[in-house]
Specification:
By secondary structure, this protein is an alpha/beta fold. The protein has 2 domains: 73 residues, Orthogonal Bundle (Arc Repressor Mutant, subunit A); 172 residues, D-Maltodextrin-Binding Protein, domain 2. 45% of the residues lie in helices and 23% in strands. The protein is built from 12 helices and 12 strands. Strands 3, 4, 5, 6, 7, 10, 11 and 12 form an 8-stranded mixed β-sheet that branches. Strands 1-2 form a two-stranded antiparallel ribbon. It has a two-stranded parallel ribbon with strand order 8-9. A hairpin with a 4-residue loop joins strand 1 and strand 2. Helix 2 packs across helix 3. This is LysR family transcriptional regulator. Pfam families: HTH_1, LysR_substrate.
Length: 301
């Protein structure tokens, strides 16, 4: 049998018990004392016994009330928790999430991230900003994006970074190139090859210059381009070779390319998820982050 008892009546009993005052309880619950008394009376009638002992000067919890009070408190907590859970579900299902990602992730992992996310949460609207990593981080700083999937680079004190991919540089060449079939090489061994480089000032050229020093300066400068896609297209035509992060090789599966591990030194960049330090993510963004972590982590560190 379902009793005709409201959560308001139980809340009234719990509040009076805690404050030991009808006047204070009525004020806290924003009701009149007479309305509060009616709630308590109705609850007592439903249970068939008094819950409070009243005198002209005081109010205290009865023997039965002492038995019921812990259960009543638990009912209130469970009720509030259930409401919070429902509100969270509504926010997640009908929310909107805005994020940034660098061009590498946009051209490789983003389709899988979005597909998985929209399959699990079809009602959440998604806004994507494809940028360079510095621009992606800037959008997190100014609030245009809740999070970014990008390279952290030199970082920023107001941002937090979760590293998920250690994106190691490799050499890529056409399958007809003499290097094709090699398992590994070194920077010294390939320094005289016809390199297709990203133009001076790009994040990649700065990274390679920082790690390779004078060795990088010895590379040919006859052909410089602005984007990895252009690099791969030219390599695919047999024009030269290129040093690219491993993840980039997934951009152009239509080309007859091979990749070769390169070391002495090993050069890599760190990719992951960037958020604003101390700023909570929305429920929708938390769900997106979880999906992105599961997919990006497959490529490991």
């Amino acid at each position: 049998m379902i009793r005709d008892t409201s959560i308001g009546e139980i809340a009234a009993f719990v509040t009076v018990s805690r404050l030991e005052s009808f006047a204070l309880a009525a004020e806290e619950l924003h009701v009149t004392q007479s309305a509060l008394s009616r709630r308590i009376k109705k609850l007592e009638e439903s249970l068939g016994a008094p819950l409070l002992d009243r005198t002209t000067r005081s109010v205290s919890v009865s023997t039965l009330g002492m038995e019921f009070l812990p259960k009543a408190i638990r009912i209130i907590k469970d009720y509030n928790r259930s409401l919070d859970d429902i509100v969270e579900i509504v926010k997640v299902r009908s929310g909107i999430v805005s994020f940034s990602c660098n061009m590498t992730i946009a051209h490789t992992l983003l389709p899988e991230i979005i597909d998985s996310f929209k399959t699990a949460h079809p009602d959440i609207r998604v806004r994507v900003h494809e940028d360079s990593s510095p621009q992606a981080l800037e959008k997190v700083l100014d609030g245009q994006s809740e999070l970014a999937f990008a390279q952290f680079g030199e970082g920023h004190p107001e941002l937090e970074f979760e590293e998920l991919i250690n994106d190691r540089f490799v050499i890529t060449c056409h399958k007809s190139h003499p290097l094709a079939g090699s398992e590994a090489t070194t920077w010294e061994e390939v320094k005289h090859e016809n390199f297709i480089l990203l133009r001076t000032g790009s994040g990649t050229s700065k990274l390679l210059r920082r790690h390779l020093g004078d060795l990088y300066e010895s590379f040919s400068r006859e052909l410089q381009v602005g984007h990895f896609h252009s690099q791969l297209g030219l390599v695919g035509r047999g024009v030269g070779i290129a040093a690219i992060p491993s993840l980039i090789r997934f951009c152009r599966g239509d080309l007859d390319l091979e990749t070769i591990q390169i070391s002495e030194p090993v050069v890599s960049r760190k990719l992951g998820i960037v958020t604003y330090r101390g700023r909570s993510l929305s429920p929708a963004a938390k769900k997106l982050r979880a999906v992105a972590v599961s997919i990006m982590a497959k490529f490991g560190k």
